[in-house]
Design goal:
single chain; about 160 residues; alpha+beta; 2 domains
């Protein structure tokens, strides 16, 4: 990164404070800044529709101060063991069958709560769990697209799912 780009980012980073509303360009979603993770790498944690996102400020756009946070009322779920405020499912340490059951329930919960994106953290391991998750996603009618997360967000151990 050139000195000019770095000083420009240093100047911009002063505007990105907790509670400010931004548009996450890569996810095409409005979000609120929940935490500044690193001033050196310009990493910021965002909250958008219950989804926790990590992004650098070069992929964010500040929204005017008069924009309100989107109001969302979560629907009741038949799966009370799932955390409705979280849009990430961690399958580490789970066996194949129970893990796929959890994924199916988590997908239902995410659809009920009208999430646009969810994260499934299946780990790398032997790849059997990831293959099972991807098969389930490929036949699910409400899954629009899925792919591995960017390297800085988990890489091949995490699948990001876009829902219809």
């Amino acid at each position: 990164m050139s000195r000019q780009n770095k000083s420009k980012l240093d100047e911009q980073s002063n505007h990105y404070k907790v509670g400010k509303f931004v548009r996450a360009k890569r996810f095409n979603q409005d979000a609120v800044i929940s935490q500044v993770l690193s001033h050196e790498t310009y990493q910021i944690e965002l909250l958008s529709n219950g989804l926790r996102l990590k992004e650098t400020i070069d992929y964010l756009e500040l929204l005017p101060a008069n924009i309100q946070a989107p109001q969302r009322v979560p629907a009741q779920s038949s799966y009370p063991e799932l955390n409705v405020t979280s849009a990430e499912l961690d399958l580490h340490g789970m066996r194949y069958e129970p893990a796929l059951t959890q994924v199916a329930q988590f997908l239902d919960q995410a659809i009920i709560n009208q999430y646009s994106y969810i994260r499934i953290n299946h780990g790398k391991g032997s790849g059997v769990l990831q293959a099972g998750v991807w098969h389930l996603l490929s036949v699910h009618s409400q899954v629009k697209h899925y792919q591995f997360a960017p390297q800085n967000l988990g890489g091949r151990g995490v699948t990001i799912v876009e829902l219809k």
